[in-house]
Amino acid sequence: MKLFSSKKKAAILGALVGVMTLGSVAFAASTPIKLDAFYDTFKLNVNGTQQYINDRQFKPFIADSRIYIPLSTLNQLGVVNAQWDASTASVNITPSGTSSSGEVALYQQQLAALNVQLQAKTKEAEDLKAENTRLGAEVDKLKKENNSSSSTSDSRALRDLEDTFNRSRTFSRYSGPTNVGTIDFEFRVDAYRNDLEIEMYIPKTLTSSQITALKDDFRYFDEYIEDLSEEARKSFKDATVYITIYNGEYRNSPTKIGDYTYDGRRISGRIN
């Protein structure tokens, strides 16, 4: 609704509302007073929103240096709820949104019902938490049993692989060129995560010239190391094989003379 753009004066008679409080406003008949009313002299903002009123009978106005707002206007704007009680000649005013005792009781019932639901959900959450803890304990137990079983199985596989290397002439003996000769090896096998570690010891210690000849004979020796690695991966699939070669018995502080690595595709490493 659009406000009048100019100031207007009008003579009005009757009761006007100046200041409102909660409760009832009662009035008695009195001698009418003639006042000059000035319209559209100020803005009417409700909750920060400007209100435009076209109908004269609903317009706020200024009279006798006071601001007057019709109760019907406040009703329409939703500011208050004003009711005329003719039997007592009273105006009963309550702020808009104030609940009656019946509404309060209804809200209290709804709140009580929500509290019951909340307690039930809280109990359900506690039960689920307890069940989750129990299932977690079961999972941990199964993991330990599985790891124990896997560990036992891996230990057996390591022992079997170590026995195969030590007992089979195909793996425990390497025949090199004349200046290298036949080399016997003792094996120790271990595993860490997905790595397989093989230590090869030469009980009959090689001389420096033999080591040099073995280094020069790397093509054939690399093939021998690769055969060892592929045999190991039959028992430990997808494992990366690390091979270390020592000159001497493992009990007598042997000297490391070579390192090799096999990842399933190619062998890398050399005799130092």
UniProtKB/TrEMBL annotation:
<protein>
    <recommendedName>
        <fullName>Copper amine oxidase-like N-terminal domain-containing protein</fullName>
    </recommendedName>
</protein>
<feature type="region of interest" description="Disordered">
    <location>
        <begin position="139"/>
        <end position="159"/>
    </location>
</feature>
<keyword id="KW-0732">Signal</keyword>
<feature type="signal peptide">
    <location>
        <begin position="1"/>
        <end position="28"/>
    </location>
</feature>
